[in-house]
Amino acid sequence: MPRLFVGLEIPSDIGALISGLRGGLPGARWIDVANYHITLRFIGDIDERTAAEVADTLWDIHRAPFTLTLRGVESFGSRKPHSIFAAVEASKPLMALQAEVERRMQRIGLAPEQRRYTPHVTVARLRGVSGGAVAGYLGTRGLFRAGPFTVRRFVLFSSRASQGGGPYIVEEAYPLEAGSPQAELQQHA
Fold first, then answer.
1. Averaged pLDDT score across all residues of the chain
2. CA-based angle 128:131:135, to the nearest 5?
């Protein structure tokens, strides 16, 4: 059974900037630069038939390329921080793409995602790191900024079951094209 998710790749020059956030937080497990991404929809472990349906329905998404900027460093887990991430600046095209991916996953029978979508790039996973240490780390990196960069495709990734994920493999890539009918509607909205 493949473990799948839909996401956006991070360009290597942006990944190099993100990697500068590594260090200075004992107990953090830093994510490999090659595994930086922005998740659009986690799918999980599914059978081959459903995986084929997922791959097929994503071909029906037609959107224009768009730009993204990373701004700021934050953490998930208020009382018990569990990860550090680079935040993605608000983007209507990103949110529209994520919402369409979510709708299509539900149409083929996958359960709706329960958490509110927060676009981000995970930089480190934490275990047993105090809130104070995380606050200190974040305080020294609050001015982080990377981009803008252009998103020209979204991808279907697979991963093996492991702590912290990775390595991630691109199973299928879906181009974003300015001339598509949905992209034209998007420009006039």
1. 91
2. 130
